[in-house]
Amino acid sequence: xxxxxxxxxxxxxxxxxxxxxxxxxxxxxxxxxxxxxxxxxxxxxxxxxxxxxxxxxxxxxxxxxxxxxxxxxxxxxxxxxxxxxxxxxxxxxxxxxxxxxxxxxxxxxxxxxxxxxxxxxxxxxxxxxxxxxxxxxxxxxxxxxxxxxxxxxxxxxxxxxxxxxxxxxxxxxxxxxxxxxxxxxxxxxxxxxxxxxxxxxxxxxxxxxxxxxxxxxxxxxxxxxxxxxxxxxxxxxxxxxxxxxxxxxxxxxxxxxxxxxxxxxxxxxxxxxx
Length: 274
Prior knowledge:
By secondary structure, the chain is mainly α. It has 5 helices and 4 strands, in the order αααββββαα. The protein folds into 2 domains: about 10-35 and about 235-270; about 70-225, CATH 1.20.1330.10. The two termini are about 20 Å apart.
């Protein structure tokens, strides 16, 4: 079988068509995947930098979820303190009513209601939990929130015993059924101290909630920045790639036409010697 000999012009046209075909395939891949850089072969520097940015964004996304849950945990405690404050105010009203009456029977009834409210306060602290964390119960939980992927930046929200026990609000049951004014005065003093402590605890938890919300907002912004940075390194400009594809297809068609003309010219020349 005779060897096929190609002229320089034909070989050049074939090489141009081959390059155009390769560029068309690459452009179509970019349009299909939406990526300009999909592997280290495309651009090693951009690929690995984008991966690092994307991995960090993923890390912060996980931490963001934990921060969001922590905010809900603190807010549950704040809701609990608001409810406890209302109950303590009710208890103060009962003690004042007992102080205003001289009837031992009425005082005894009011003392029972007073004690019932204290029981409700203790029950409420047991229910002020979120996701298994309770910041108000007796021997309360502490909440440790991690802000960065290395674990070097954290916030500890210290639990605040809000029960009526001596370790918490320190409000005892009505002594002697409020039989004496001194018993009522002791209760009123304890209630006043408890309300002051509740206001302090609410302020502390409110400050923690504000810090957590600020960190949540920062995490959202940072995640978007990291993802945008990764995308700028790897994502394809679909408008640009579409224009490139059209130009390459036009170039390919021109190459095919040029190759056809070159082949016809060669056949014409050979015919002269036929």
